[in-house]
């Protein structure tokens, strides 16, 4: 059952105490798959161990990655916990809605990841672009800030509250992983760059982000991804590339 549970991915966490508190919140609801992306103070961190109390096993099994892309490469659906981004169009869900959906995804054989941002400023657009959907907590708009552990606790609670019986989901082909979609994005960029699509130069970075964001929103299967690769390869041959 461990693999069916979502992975909680802490992106550039700044304080060991907050990592430990998040681990404790996770284990409260039976979640033990923690991933860390470039923790500021390195890993392992004794302050995290002290704060985790009896949840040390979550920290013992935590895996560390250099980038968000690497941390979510095996996930088939990724949520980003953040205030709604005005620059990136994505489905926006409450923790309740997201974890009900996550139950259905995992029941169908998918692998879910949930991104949590660093304490000071949260996730950046460059992180959120890799997610399929956004989780936003309906808090006081005059004070929307949530502690990392609080956010993990809310999400873990909603996962546990929905129990083991997921909503029925229509059967579909094997969903593409985030790694599959990232490689497809690279292939698109390569072909579009050769065609002179990313113009003018000062807008190229934003255009590339919009492309990646569009791909992350699509419910792509592995077969879909292979079809796109085949189309792009054929375009390249016709263009002499």
From TrEMBL:
A Pfam family annotated for this UniProt entry: SpoU_methylase
Protein EC: 2.1.1.200
Alphabetical UniProt keywords: Cytoplasm, Methyltransferase, S-adenosyl-L-methionine, Transferase, tRNA processing
Domain tRNA/rRNA methyltransferase SpoU type: from-to ranges: 8-155
Enzyme class: transferase
GO process annotations (BP): tRNA nucleoside ribose methylation
Cellular location(s): Cytoplasm
Coiled-coil features, chain-numbered ranges: none
Major localization listed first in the record, in broad terms: cytoplasm
GO cellular component term of the entry, any: cytosol
Any one GO MF annotation of this record: RNA binding
Catalytic activity entry: cytidine(32) in tRNA + S-adenosyl-L-methionine = 2'-O-methylcytidine(32) in tRNA + S-adenosyl-L-homocysteine + H(+); uridine(32) in tRNA + S-adenosyl-L-methionine = 2'-O-methyluridine(32) in tRNA + S-adenosyl-L-homocysteine + H(+)
NCBIfam families documented for this protein: rRNA_methyl_1
Subunit structure: Homodimer.
Function: Catalyzes the formation of 2'O-methylated cytidine (Cm32) or 2'O-methylated uridine (Um32) at position 32 in tRNA.
Family statement drawn from the similarity comment of this UniProt entry: Belongs to the class IV-like SAM-binding methyltransferase superfamily. RNA methyltransferase TrmH family.
This protein's name: tRNA (cytidine/uridine-2'-O-)-methyltransferase TrmJ
Organism: Haematobacter missouriensis
């Amino acid at each position: 059952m461990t693999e069916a549970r979502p992975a909680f991915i802490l992106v550039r966490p700044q304080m060991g105490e907050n990592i430990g508190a998040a681990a404790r919140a996770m284990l409260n609801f039976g979640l033990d798959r923690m991933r860390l992306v470039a923790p500021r103070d390195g890993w392992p961190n004794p302050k995290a161990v002290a704060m985790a109390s009896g949840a040390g096993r979550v920290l013992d099994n935590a895996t560390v990655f250099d980038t968000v892309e690497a941390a979510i490469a095996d996930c088939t659906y990724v949520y980003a916990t953040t205030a709604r981004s005005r620059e990136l169009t994505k489905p926006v869900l409450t923790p309740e809605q997201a974890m009900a959906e996550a139950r259905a995804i995992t029941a169908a054989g998918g692998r879910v990841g949930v991104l949590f941002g660093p304490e000071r400023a949260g996730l950046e657009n460059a992180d959120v672009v890799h997610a399929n959907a956004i989780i936003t907590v309906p808090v006081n708009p005059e004070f929307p800030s949530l502690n990392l552990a609080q956010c993990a606790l809310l999400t873990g609670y909603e996962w546990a509250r929905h129990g083991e019986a997921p909503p029925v989901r229509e059967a579909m082909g094997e969903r593409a992983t985030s790694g599959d979609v990232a490689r497809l994005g690279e292939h698109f960029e390569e072909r579009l760059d050769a065609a002179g699509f990313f113009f003018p130069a000062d807008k190229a970075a934003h255009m590339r982000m919009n492309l990646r964001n569009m791909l992350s929103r699509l419910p792509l299967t592995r077969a879909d991804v292979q079809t796109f690769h085949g189309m792009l390869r054929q375009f390249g041959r016709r263009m002499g590339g």
